[in-house]
Structures are given as C-alpha cells and as structure tokens.
Amino acid sequence: MGPLGWVAIFASALVGQWVWASEFPFFGYSPQLVLVATVALAARRGPLAAMAAGFWGGLLGNVGSRQLFGIDALAFVWIAYGVWILSKNVDTTRLLPQCALTIFMSWAYAVLAIVAGLAFAGAPQWPGWAGCFVVPLYNAIAAAALFEILSRAEKRRGLR
What is the per-residue pLDDT across 48-79, written as a single tens digit (0 to 9) for each? Predict the structure, then answer.
C-alpha cells in the first residue's frame, strides 16, 4: 500500500474514532483507531512514516478532546518507535502477534498518558481500570480487522 493509502487509513481512523466515541461507545468506551493505525503502519512500513502519521493523527485527535493537548501526538510517536523496536523480535506479519502488540501498546499509551499528565498538567490522565482493560481489547479487535483489510489489499496489489 502506498503513501496515499496510508493517508486514507489515518483519515478514516480519525473520523471513525470521533464518530465511534461520540455516537456508538460500547459500555462507555471506544477503540483508539489512530493508535491501531499507528501500530499497523510502524509494523509494516517502519518507524519514520508511523511517527509522522501518529504525530499528526494525535494532534488532530486532540483538537476536539478534553485531554492535555498534544499528549496523543507525543504518545503515538513513542508507540511507533516502540513497535519498531519490538518488531525486530516479533513476527508482525501474522495476526496474533499484531493483536498482542496492539494490546501491549495500548497499555503503554495509558502509562504514557499518566506520566505526561503528571509532568505537564500536575494530574494524571488516568482512564480508569475499566479503560485499561476494555479499550485494549477493543483495539485488538480493530487491529484484527485492519490487519485483514491490509493483508487483502496487499495480496490484491501483488496480483496485478
């Protein structure tokens, strides 16, 4: 998939996350689709593109939220770098490792949000215990769907 395809994925993730969180939250929570797209991009294309896309996706995602502005951008840059480091030892071309990596990075996001909140706002940006267990599962389900979509797109592109 080329750069325009990834731009379309991140734009869809931003819109989808905004609509899902505001209109269709399950038990008060929704998946972090930009985080899932950042993990997928870092696993498939490397850290630089994922860091740039995660930074801009995080900034645009923070525009309409009540969180500390820029916290998602900072977290997604670190997450993209972490995925790149871990992908050297993990086979990210299969579904199960991709979902496990997404769950791990969702927890890393929560830790980064807490630390950044303490450092910059004087209070942790704590999503709560339920958010730390429910959202990573939602993210893993979204990662599985995105993994399947990307696999089919790459197979179709390879056949042409």
Answer: 999 999 999 888 888 867 677 888 888 999 99
Cα gap 42→38, rounded to integer Å? 6
Distances (CA, A) of 75 to 36, 102, 153: 13, 14, 28
**pLDDT band (50, 70, 90) for residue 160:** very low
* Per-residue confidence band for 159, with pLDDT thresholds at 50, 70 and 90: low
φ, ψ of residue 91 to 5 degrees: the values are: -80, 100
3-24+31-159 fold: Arp2/3 complex 21 kDa subunit ARPC3 (1.10.1760)
Cα pseudo-dihedral 8, 145, 33, 95, rounded to 10? -110
- Give the ranges where 46-128 is alpha helix by DSSP (H): 47-63, 71-87, 95-116
Residue 40 C-alpha from the chain's centroid: 8
Cβ neighbours around 110 below 10 Å, total: 20
Q: How far is CA 160 from CA 73, 119, 121, 153, 157, in A?
A: 36, 51, 52, 11, 5
99 φ/ψ angles, rounded to the nearest 5 degrees: -70, -40
Parse the chain into domains and list their residue ranges.
Answer: 3-24+31-159
- Which residue matches tokens 């929570």? 29
